[in-house]
Amino acid sequence: MGLNIVLQCLYYPPEVGGLESHVAGLGEGLARRGHEVRMLTSRSRPDLPRREALAGVQVRRVWMPSRSPLGWLAHTVASIFAHANWARSADILHAHTFASAVPGMISRKRYGAPLVVTLHTSHFLMRAPKPGWRAVFRRIIESADYLLATSEEIRQVALAISRHPRSEVMTNAVDTDRFAPRTGPLEGDRRQIIVPRRLFPKNGVEYFVRALPLIAADLDVEARVVGDGPERERLTSLAAELGVSDRIRFLGARSNEEMPGLLREAELAVIPSLIEATSIAALEAMSCGLPVAASAVGGLPEIIDERVGSLFEPANPQALADAVASLLRRPDLRDLGAEGRRRVVANWSLDRMVERHLEIYNELIDEAKAKEQG
Q1: In this predicted model, what pLDDT tens digit does every residue of 7-37 receive, in sequence order?
Q2: Considering the entire predicted model, what is its pTM?
Q3: Closest CA to 170 of 352, 33, 373, 367
Q4: How far apart, in whole angstroms, are the C-alpha atoms of residue 120 and residue 278?
Q5: Would you say 187 and 216 are in contact if contact means Cβ atoms under 8 Å apart?
Q6: Domain 4-173+349-373 in CATH 3.30.70.141
Q7: pLDDT bucket at 1, cuts 50 / 70 / 90
């Protein structure tokens, strides 16, 4: 018999990002296994329907006035009633991100279904040192029957706030059937680099642009940046100032459906983040057989080492350029990509992530039933 599962996350597809991919992959994977999955999220764009079914997941979108802490708070309050309606019949409640936890906390107290909380993203890491936020996070962490985090760094920061007795790293996962390696050779003479990063300061794309002339001094390279954001105009101007406009293309935001094809057109991915959880973009690149050069921050060293790519000092264009050039000169570059692919299939596939969630859910449900009977 299938479970009745209520998920809540601030953002959900068609919004694009690692958080959205993680939650959509989980929800759709659970639905494919015959479970009833309902997703409560924000109406982050006015063109999105308030209710719809997406790949077997029943989605309800609740008002959110802006993409800001105040907007998140307003959405949290606005979604409490809708969450409670669904929670009455739920077997398990699962909140993704701290901004989505409060409705689950209230519903858990009222209706008794176990609550799982997953902490994602750099937003948590940036706010955790602040005393006011730490008090909020402590309440959220202590309310969870099971605490998940998308990197070991996030888990350790959470445990420093409150020593939760049951916590686990749940790395982002990849649909390894869709994100598969190319089968033929690349076209063109230039070496192809992809930078799958949204254009926000924390993602460090500026340092890749600054490194590009250093790379191009030795190698004939071309880069494509996939993602959009407030830094686009400045980065385009910076590329022109550095004389590399003919070597870099800013493709803007692309859907998740387009990403496998875009990745397969490159031979190396670069993740130049200044702060990061565990990058779904890096894992997707690895799943497509690409070696990855990444900054040594957050959860990136947990998935990348010299057998699948290279790590470099963040915010250091010379270190970034050296890492990229060194990789592109390696005769065994495709072997690194093949090892990355094997690693993702073995450890971070979508099927593995869904199965582990179900193990946790069933454990909590059995414990709750035992308490009722005892």
Answers
A1: 999 999 999 888 899 999 999 999 999 999 9
A2: 0.85
A3: 352
A4: 9
A5: no
A6: no
A7: confident
